[in-house]
Specification:
Layout (H helix, E strand, L loop, with lengths): L2 H4 L3 E4 L2 E3 L2 E5 L2 E5 L2 E4 L4 E4 L7 H10 L7 E5 L5 H4 L2 H7 L5 E4 L4 H4 L22 E2 L5 E2 L5 E5 L8 E5 L4 E5 L3 E3 L2 E4 L8 H9 L8 E4 L3 E3 L3 H11 L2
Parallel strand pairs: 6-7, 7-8, 8-9, 13-16
Antiparallel strand pairs: 1-2, 2-5, 3-4, 5-6, 10-11, 11-12, 12-13, 14-15, 16-17
Helix pairs in contact: 6-7
The structure holds zinc ion.
């Protein structure tokens, strides 16, 4: 693969880009999609990818036209390794303090006080990170066009999704996965409480959404309000 092909971030709207991180598992590739949000004063990264892949994440941030040292916050949607794995390298590389934000229920797992729910110790030591600030359902972060926190437990007990008000973009984390622009549902293999996960998905019908960024599956723009309405009806 060419160097260029590795970095394929997509700008969704002014001040928001979906990043790509490609993870190789033997012959299989998995794509992860952290999201970058920015305005004149702040840059915020949502989720950080797998441990050891920070250099590619940093390049993706730069490709979006954002200086890495402009980054002031990292929001973690939940505790899973593929979301928190890049935090410690990122914090070490930054020239100034970066605030880590998460939901209070997942905070003790992220901080290493409780073992990560899905971590397999045979894959190496669990990553961990400090959490500086906790956010709850309905909180609005008044930066980068306004970011509403939506509590979406199920995949993990302290999972959050984020609604970017300025661009009407929903950042789902792992509340839902997608394939080729179609919203599927929770990833059944990795979601301990499926009923709760479907209840969480139904909350998205309360928002006017134009674009969805799924951490696993990428962008969806095709009648997404309608897609969410149908999924919620089917699992009511
Ligand atoms: Zn994930």
């Amino acid at each position: 693969m060419s160097e260029e092909g590795l970095y394929t971030m997509k700008q969704v709207a002014q001040g928001i880009a979906m990043l790509d991180q490609i993870v190789q598992f033997g012959e299989h590739q998995m794509e992860l999609h952290p999201t970058l949000l920015w305005d004149d004063d702040h840059a915020i990264l949502v989720d950080t990818g797998m441990p050891g892949l920070f250099p590619s994440l940093r390049k993706e941030i730069q490709q979006a036209g954002v200086l890495f040292n402009h980054l002031s916050k990292v929001i973690l949607t939940h505790q899973d390794v593929d979301h928190i794995g890049g935090v410690s390298e990122l914090l070490a590389a930054s020239e100034h303090p970066v605030e880590v934000v998460a939901h209070p229920v997942d905070k003790p797992y992220i901080e290493g006080e409780k073992p990560l729910i899905k971590h397999d110790p045979s894959r190496g030591p669990a990553p961990s990170s400090k959490v500086d600030v906790t956010v709850e359902d309905g909180d609005v972060l008044p930066y980068c066009g306004g970011i509403t926190v939506i509590f979406t437990p199920g995949h993990t007990p302290g999972h959050i999704s984020l609604y970017h008000q300025a661009s009407k973009t929903l950042i789902t984390g792992d509340a839902i996965i997608s394939n080729q622009g179609q919203l599927i549902g929770p990833n059944e293999n990795f979601t301990p409480d499926l009923d709760l996960a479907w209840k969480s998905i139904s909350k998205f019908t309360n928002y006017d959404i134009e674009t969805v960024i799924c951490y696993h599956g990428g962008l969806c723009t095709d009648n997404v309000n309608e897609q969410f309405r149908k999924l919620a009806e089917a699992h009511a």
